[in-house]
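Have a think about this chain, tokens included, and walk me through the fold.
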Amino acid sequence: MASSTAKKTVSSYHIGSTLSILYIAIRISTANLAPITDCDEVFNYWEPLHFILYGSGMQTWEYAPQYALRTYVYLLPMAGLAKCLQFILKFLPTSSLIRQQLFNLLLLQSSTTTTQEILPLDNDDKPLLFAMLRSSLILTSCYSELSFLSSIHDTISPTLAHWTAFCSFTTAGNFHASPALLPSSTVMILWRLSAANQLRGWDGYAILWGLVAVLSVGWPFCAVLFVSTGLWALWKAASVSSSLERNDDGIGMRCRLMVHVLIRTALHAIVIQAIVMMIDYHYYGKIVSPIWNIFVYNATAGGDELYGVEPLSYYVKNLLLNFNFVGLLGILSLPILLGRKLLASSFPHTTLFRLGDGHYSSSGASDGLKILMLVPMYIWMAIVFPRPHKEERFLFPIYPMLCFGASIALEEVMMMSMQVLSLILPKSKVAPSPNKCMLLGLVLLSPFAVISISRSFALHHNYSAPLDLYQHFYNHHIMSKDMTSERENEEVTYICTAGEWYRFPSSFFLPANTQLGFLKSSFSGQLPQPFTEFGSKKESLEIQEGAFNDVNKEEMDRYIGIHQCSYVIELVPSDISDGEETPECLQYMKSDPSGDWTQVASYKYLDAISTDALHRILYIPFRRTSKVRHKGYNLYSVSRSK
């Protein structure tokens, strides 16, 4: 036993290895390059987190006490980490070089942002804290990735682990899913941890991670991803005594082991749910179960459909954009694997359909583990794809399975090709070494990796203007001469927007006593409103000015007038033609009789309509200036006559 352990190859992906450190370093360096692509991330998670930390933020109807669809448990780990980071930052002077370099490192600014613009930092350093929190999300994601990859390396095949890592590292989907504060991203992380434990045979921990995902993230639908985890543990418990004869003792032991798995799972679930309900009781002021509430709401006809419906092609396009050919391979992986196994069983006397003995591929004995890892992806797609309401984030949980599946499909195709060639050529010419086989797979995947990296660059260059502009606003406002008097008088400064409300990157980019204001736009749904000091407790209903509803009905009390705004943000075309409607905020500013509005800053935002599809989808440096059209993401300030 000891000798076999000594001969075992140490995984290249174990935490602390050179490869793992390099992997983490590169991923963290790109954490804040990804734009925030989903307004739900901001208003349902970053804003409540800001409220927990600072006592202010925008509240959505899901956090209203009469609905209680969101659990605060999901936010507490980030809140605890933020408190620790705040404590550390207090020991760094606001003008220190260390603080400034940390700011520059994490908040990688666009070329239009100068160092002089970001030198003045206040004591809160909320944008810096925001960047550090996003980096921590990437760090957690990297840990789960490395755990998953290390388990694949040790239990299935080093080659499959390398290919999966390559796909996971380069795909555009992981680029913007990993730093997202969304339940779907967290479920993706927890599934990796569960799968890593299951591959190693630690079924108790695998089920535990699944319970954490289902009960504490606030997204109970993810339970279907862990059904196979529980069934596999029960099957192993039932078959662990296979050496015993099928007598009463053998059957009794099997039953006892299965009951043990069920009781252990139930106890873990009870403990986790009790902790969740105690924490939510603290924030809602009553006994409540958000996971039950959100399940009932979405199960009710027309629940999530109020927020838009999309055809099936929506998910097809997203998978092609974020994974291109890797996504297609991932989806086809299980049919390819099962097809090869069916042919192997139908023609047992030929070696053509036998995968190998593990020399330069994974062995056929590991097929069961591969199927176990892939089945949740197909269950998820069968449930999510037909639903009318579709969101890109709903696909995040299956991203690891797509990468792993693509590696399996590649292995199957490559090994089958080599088997066919071995019938024609001498075997020595078609049986490469493990390293050569691994490198050949990387070469085949490289063109698609380049496309994915180009897509990630395009997302950053085309859609990072909101983050850059609000950062500019933060620095501009704390440098203004009126900042001191505003803090002393506790006057609220409104930064307003109309149709661009959904690109607001969170209150972490608003200085103290600054609040987001909504101007009436063509949007006719329900907007959030500020948290009261009571948060989600029923006392908030007595002092909250606006009402909430659960049917996405527009509430007119959300809007303020242009005369209340000190700043305005608007997306403005580079050239407003005669037939094109003037942006709404420009119309408001023009109609403001007491205000003299001037442009403070402008950042480039892709004009999708005027840019051809290829340059819109991918970052192509050649002839980019002539092919890509931009709009101005503009910040305006006002000087009012007294």
Summary: The first helix runs from residue 2 to 7. Residues 481 and 488 are 13 Å apart (CA to CA).
